[in-house]
Amino acid sequence: MIAARPLVSIGIPAYNRPIGLSRLIEQIQSQTYSNLEIIISDNCSDNTEVQESALSFAKLDSRIKYIRQPTNIGMFENFRFVLRKANGDFFMWISDDDEILPQFIERCIEILIKNKKIVLCTPICKVFQDGKEVMKYKPDFHTVGLSKMERIKKIAFYIKKSHGALFGLYRREAIIKFSTVTYLDADGIFLLQLSQYGAFYKLDELLMKSYVDYVENNVQTTLTFQKEKMIDMYNMKPKYFLMRYEQITMFFYILLRSLSWKNLSFFQHFTVLGIIYRSFWGYNTIKPFSLIRSLFFYFKKRKVAALIKVQPSNQEIKEKLENIITVVDKVLVSISSSDWGEEGMNQYVELDNLKDLIAKYPNKIIFYRGLWQTKHAQNQYSLDFIKQNMLNISHCLLLEDNSFPSTPVIEKSIDYIQHLKYFNRRVDFIYQGIENNIAVIPVRKHIIFKDENVISAGTVKVNLTA
């Protein structure tokens, strides 16, 4: 239980969704944390049921403040409006087409009260489209313990995937320090800018549902339609480039916006420019530098580290280690503190049965533990660990949780690496009669994971017989 119960403000920018708004208010009223103020800003909805529904709730609950805008002030201004009206030490936005579970606020505020350096706590969110679950969104937004520049770097990478962290619980004093922008990708820019002021905490609990049906006045629309409508509504320029070349346009826009960030030193601004560049284009885009790096890497002696990813429910690690320990140069056992399934969340990896193996190979096995929210995040940060701490390693053998290749198969893969034609590409070895493939990744500074299965250097598939 929370000893002090500070006020939490909830801002709802509402527009033309009376059913969703009523459902959301009921869910907020069912929260286990009760010291709330609920600010509803009705953006001049055409549907009169929005006002009728909100006022009926406000009559029975003094925590609810309903404001109807006389004219449509636009989505961005409506978001700003509810924040300006907030009085609580903590604040959250939530849309009238989202849902939250009863423990949402209590679980998030516990984290924020315990650590004042955290400015945002965001839980797991399931995403639905057309009534079907399309994604259980668990990006690695967790930046607790990182320096300011490390936080910015991490968020710059992950906002390219999605902006699910936006609907979390904020420390209000942090988000009123800067203004939000009226432009495409405003939520991503907002999160990137906020990372200057403190850490993000990724709560490993499913507490929210979001819907991405793009429904307006009960009519289904497309993302492209919504995008063009927003560009026209806010007179965003240049429209042609935003519609046809959005990535290039957004890159230059965010780059220029970052120059106005006030919580960075002169030299940190230059670092941020590089971070934003790499978040959009990766490391391998400046050809002269790329050729020099490739030349050094080509002459590097080929040494292989095996990366074994372990989740709390995975207990077959000894069998994996025994299969590979004698044929690779190093073994990194990457242990995730969370499981990406709904079961096994509170289990722990048992390492007692590895004592004899560790004693036999004391300098060959390294254990690396972390809190990763996705598999590709675990891949990325484990590969970074290899880059920084195993300087003589040239390639990483990536073994999936359910992959148990035999020693001869691994030896054949490594032998191929020694004469590797595609030395600077990911290689997927596909063996006849073996269900799970073996992936080999070059350990180079510019290699980054774009998603769970794709890295920036590209992939080559090689068929071999076991």
How would you sum up this structure, described in words?
By secondary structure, the protein is α/β, with parallel strands linked by helices. It has two domains: 8-215, Spore Coat Polysaccharide Biosynthesis Protein SpsA, Chain A (Alpha-Beta Complex); 290-465, Spore Coat Polysaccharide Biosynthesis Protein SpsA, Chain A, CATH 3.90.550. It is 36% helix and 23% strand. The protein contains 16 helices and 18 strands. It has helices at residues 18-29, 49-60, 75-84, 104-114, 148-158, 172-175, 186-194, 223-233, 239-244, 246-258, 266-281, 287-298, 317-324, 355-360, 375-389, 407-418, and strands at residues 8-14, 36-42, 64-68, 90-93, 99-100, 118-129, 132-137, 169-171, 199-211, 215-216, 219-220, 304-310, 330-336, 365-370, 395-399, 426-432, 438-442, 459-465. Helix 1 (18-29) packs parallel to helix 2 and helix 5 packs parallel to helix 11. The chain is elongated. It starts with 7 loop residues before the first strand and ends with a strand.
Overall 3D shape: elongated
- Give the number of DSSP strands: 18
How large is the count of helical segments?
16
CATH architecture of the largest domain: Alpha-Beta Complex
Average the pLDDT over all residues and give the rounded result: 81
Q: What is the CATH C level class of the largest domain, in words?
A: Alpha Beta
Helix content: 25-40%
Q: Superfamily at the CATH H level of the largest domain?
A: Spore Coat Polysaccharide Biosynthesis Protein SpsA, Chain A
| Unreliable sequence segments | 340-348
Q: In whole angstroms, how far apart are the ends?
A: 58 Å
Rg over C-alpha atoms, rounded to the nearest angstrom:
25 Å
- Domains counted in the coordinates: how many? 2
Q: Roughly what fraction of the amino acids lie in strands?
A: 15-25%
Q: Based on helices, strands and strand pairing, what is the structural class?
A: alpha/beta
CATH topology title of the largest domain: Spore Coat Polysaccharide Biosynthesis Protein SpsA, Chain A
Largest sheet: 9 strands, mixed
